[in-house]
Amino acid sequence: MKLIVNVNYSKAHLILRGVSFWTMVVLFLGYIGIGYTKEADVRLLIDTSGSMKVNDPKNLREPAVNLLIRLLPDDSKLGIWTFDQSVKALAVYDLIDNNWREQAINNSKQISSKGLFTDIGKALEVATFDTHRQGDMARHIILLTDGMVDVAKDPIKNVEARQHILNSQLPRLKQSGYVIHTIALSDKADHELLQQLAINTDGLSSTANSAEELSKLFLKALEQADQAPKVPLQANRFLIDSQVEEFTLLVFKKKSDEVVQLSSPDGKTYKQGSRVKDLRWFNTPHYDLITVDQPYEGEWQLQAETDPNNRVTIVSNLQMKFSGVPSNLFQGQQAEARIWFEQNTKRLVNEELFQIMKLTLTLSQEENTVAEEVFYTAKMAQDDQGAFTLKVPEMRAVGEYTLTIKADGKTFLRQVSKALSVREPLVVSHERITKEDQEIDVILVKPQSLFLDTEATVIKATIAPPVGKPSSLVIPLQEDKKSWLLSITPQQHGIYRVAFGVNAKDNNGNYIPVKLEPLVFKFPENFNPGVSEQEEQPTPTTEEKITDEAVDEKEKESDSSWLLYGGLIFGNILLAGGLYWAYRRFFSDAPPTDDKSAASKEDDADNIDLNEEDDIDLDMPLDKLDDNADESGADKASDKKNKQEKVDVGKENDSASDSKPET
């Protein structure tokens, strides 16, 4: 019998005493032999096209593939293929055992990035060789790619290959029960195609922002395929009970040189390299995988940085199972989780056991708890298959969630988890095509959940043209019952607005509240709204605005220049007028003459040509002009004679000055 250790786990005072609780409780357990969840069936498809050299330069696909190989339990089925222009088997599809595992890990070194094309359709065809096989066990495909469907240099052939996947392969795979999980490793990947493959088969569609995230996304997809029993890991502590024969601890590392240690209930601490019989420690730069056989009962403690992706899987006769929650839900969709327990592959029904059990349902996004509810099985009824039903809280916000359910049986803890994608129920797309020299606007409405009843859902469109009254019609459902298609042939130039009214129902006939945002588009594409060709000129571009501003500045500078020049000319005129006034005052002291002669002289003085350079220098300073006036007054008689001569000369120059341009 294994060592029993007294422990205090979290806030619950849990004491394990004497022999195992389950050794006694098994005496009065009731069994119901209603089915058993079989081991996982997984097919892994790895893109090895040349573009992977850019998106995965360190070839982190290899350690991610090895993680899946090591985590899947024995007797699970796994096959691995690489694809580019062709498809090659990296590990033959078969039951997993130690020999198969070692050979597959060795073959993973062949993963490269040398291919020329990306034939996704061929890869799906090879991996789904057994579509004819009937059974209730889901077959899961994990598809990793960084590109689009690329089978030839001819783009028409690529389009045809893509349509073949959606119109032929996908319906067949869905009918055969395959679940496709897609991982995109590039922004250039065909995200629409990958999402359609996942949504229509209720798989996960994920995007890796870097190759470093591949291992975590592979693990996320693997948990959809393999319901490996787990125990909760809280604050780097976990509890092992007497029913656990083995546990495997997965620890992701933020730094490659991070040292991970593990402490057992007996106080001993282990690390990579510790020589212990029942300890296997696999170390990589990205994660550590620690397996302990026949572990001590009690609380174990992990000494490493916390990570929400760390987990503890166990091998135990006592397992917790659940079903009923799809991977893809729409906003506000009601979902119910069914929980049951199995002992030696048979479901348990026991009133004594479930009188003390507590179930905690948690919805989280990354490390943030969105909702949490507690259920006590003593107040719940089991259905005829021994399962409890838990209502999942509505998720109103679009995004990625993790659903976790923990069972606390006082002497044991179990946990199950599932990744969920919450989407809008319907998505609208718009495309303009040309058919027979005529442009047509095509509006396509697609569901994003398998649980939407497309035949019971009615979508109405109200189309408002640029001019005139709106018109309404029901968008017809396509023959494949998968989408609604509306074609509009614009007759007017301007802005069109399409509003939607939706009456949606799920597969159970329940009404689903759906609100689609109006779609607005222009015709033609280069139509400039709000500008009339007759009334207004086109709105100037940024370059034109800059040019206009430069012209305005230039005009302002020109106006300032004219003011400056005008001021100088006006000042010169005033100066000349002052000189003329001084001249008249000087000659007022001369002897009187006859009126006719004086009048004649005054008229002659008024005809002085200010443009004559010899008369006055308009640029001469005022003090110089005063000095000249004083010197002229020293000899009046001589000045009178000279003045008379100047007047005569002025008369002769009048005619000449008429031909000069005015200043």
From TrEMBL:
Spans traversing the lipid bilayer: 12-34, 562-583
Q: Where is this region: Disordered?
A: 527-554, 591-663
Point to the regions of Acidic residues compositional bias. 603-620
Please list the residue ranges that the record marks as compositionally biased, kind Basic and acidic residues.
Answer: 542-554, 593-602, 621-663
Q: Which domain of life is it from?
A: Bacteria
Q: Which CDD domains match?
A: vWFA
Q: Residue ranges of the VWFA domain? A: 41-222
UniProt keywords, alphabetically: Membrane, Transmembrane, Transmembrane helix
Please name the Pfam families in this protein's record. VWA
Report the protein name in the record: VWA domain-containing protein
Naturally occurring in which organism (per UniProt): Zooshikella ganghwensis
Which lineage do the record's taxonomy fields give for this organism? Bacteria, Pseudomonadati, Pseudomonadota, Gammaproteobacteria, Oceanospirillales
